[in-house]
Amino acid sequence: MVEIIVENLFFKYPDAEKYALKNINFSIRGGESIAILGENGAGKTTLAKNLNGLLKPTKGSVKIDGVDTRSLSVAKIARKIGFVCHNPDHQFFAETVEEEIKFGLKNFGFQENEIEKSLSEVLKTFGLEEYRHRSPFQLSGGEKKRLAIASIIVWRPELLILDEPTIGMDYAQRLNIQNVLKNLVSEGKSIIVITHDVDFAANICNRAIVLSGGEVVGDGCLRKLLSDPEVVNRASLRKPFIIELEEETGFSGIDEDFDSISEYLIKVFHKCHS
Amino acid sequence: MNVVDLRNVSFRYTGSEKEVLSNISLKIEEGESVLITGPSGCGKSTIARIIMGLIPHSYSGDLRGEAYVFGMNILENPVSRIATRCGIVFQNPANQLFTFSVEDDVAFGPENLALPPEDIRRRVDESIRLVGIEHLRYSSPNSLSGGEQQKAAIASILSMHPSIIVFDEPTSMLDPSSSISLIQSIFRLKENLEEKGSKITLIIIEHRISLLLDHVSRIVVISDGRIVLDGEPMTVLYESFKKRIPINIPPVLQIYFRIKDKCGLEKPPKNLKELFSYLREEVKHG
Prior knowledge:
Oligomer: heterodimer
CATH superfamily of the largest domain in chain A: P-loop containing nucleotide triphosphate hydrolases
CATH class of the largest domain in chain A: Alpha Beta
Shape of chain B: globular
CATH architecture of the largest domain in chain A: 3-Layer(aba) Sandwich
Structural class of chain A: alpha/beta
CATH topology of the largest domain in chain A: Rossmann fold
Number of helices of chain B: 11
CATH topology of the largest domain in chain B: Rossmann fold
Distance between the termini of chain B: 47 Å
Distance between the termini of chain A: 55 Å
Order of helices and strands of chain A: EEEHEEHEHHHEHEHEEHHHH
Helix content of chain A: 40-55%
Shape of chain A: globular
Largest sheet of chain B: 6 strands, mixed
Largest sheet of chain A: 6 strands, mixed
Number of helices of chain A: 11
Number of domains of chain A: 2
Strand order of the largest sheet of chain A: 6-7-8-3-9-10
Order of helices and strands of chain B: EEEHHEEHEHHHEHEHEEHHH
């Protein structure tokens, strides 16, 4: 478990005039699934980089298990907080897919047999077995994205931050990632997903932090926030399909399961018809 | 006229054992808007690279078959010549921005066509305005967010006045409302150019089918390196659904395809509201 407390966080890039983040306050505990939503340039990625110590606050503080990120090394934080960046090319450097995945494990001092076991598990989960000996740079966009996630998730950080994880993914892979992340949360790990894919966010996250112009304009239950037209418009979002469906049917808490939704509609339809 | 004509094209990247494209034949007419979709890793971006001549000129591998763009055989013409007719917006916009200001990036193409300075300026103004990034004109591309970089990359292609534009996931980093407005401005631009008498062909590679469904006239589905479906959008989506090809069929159609026969629905709905109103109508009158 990891606990993060963000207090009065302000952040400004060195040569910028304006603050990219203004007076941010929230905390994260174990087992949370959070979506960070907001328009382009709202400060989502900047906030994520402040959480894992890649950037340090200009004012205010970010504390990880009670310790200010200013006094922690990036490597030390990385053991607890994994970060998958939105551009996989920025993350890769190894010669092969296998080496890319093993890098973190080796650096955190995992035993050889553990490394082999985790490697083969994660290759299987992310459908990358056949690319094991290929260069990461030769993969397709969607495959790179999967490798980027696999190479971080493999050391099982307490909090996993994913920046736009569904870019370039097809339907089946999206479902797969969804399940992998849900499993992590059920094991007590936390996830933060930075995304424009509101349907994906609604399927896996309970909580949303909505940013607009560097400020938090909403923090709370995701389905509630994204039902609010004011929040949705302000942050250039869209109402997730699942919430539209809830509004049309009058049900709450349904899952995006097209088979059972359709079966239900057919049943109701025939009942009304006869 | 076919502006793209691929004949029995196969390609294997050096170092890989498997062919990424196998025996693809694809003709695209001038003025068409085509969506190319398919499971990740199926070979979509490879097709884009072939159309641009980047394969075989910049990527090594084993290319078979013939490929023509505007009648130019890609084997016999350098990328620089193909680039005067055909522009590409890459999946990863950071890879195509390299100067110190958005303005310079947008001006780079026209400068290399050796156009007079006032023409360059006009093209830069127009392209920057079309994608709505006037406020970022003097910013460094490095300092932009992912979505802003994507818009800058699109402007840098528009300034070349290409006849074909290939978009490889053009809105992957944009928020939902910017994605919709960007797609709308791309198609508005196409209409504007057509009114002036110049035809432009759009080839869009995208997983998010829902964004483009109202705009394209044709969908091509690639799976495992082959063209498995090609035709009118709704027909292609229904076939993909029946064959369980894992493409991102819009959620409302996922439900529509499952219930349409049992509930006697004929017309595909645009959104959930429409689906439910069709259902109510059917209950009332059916």
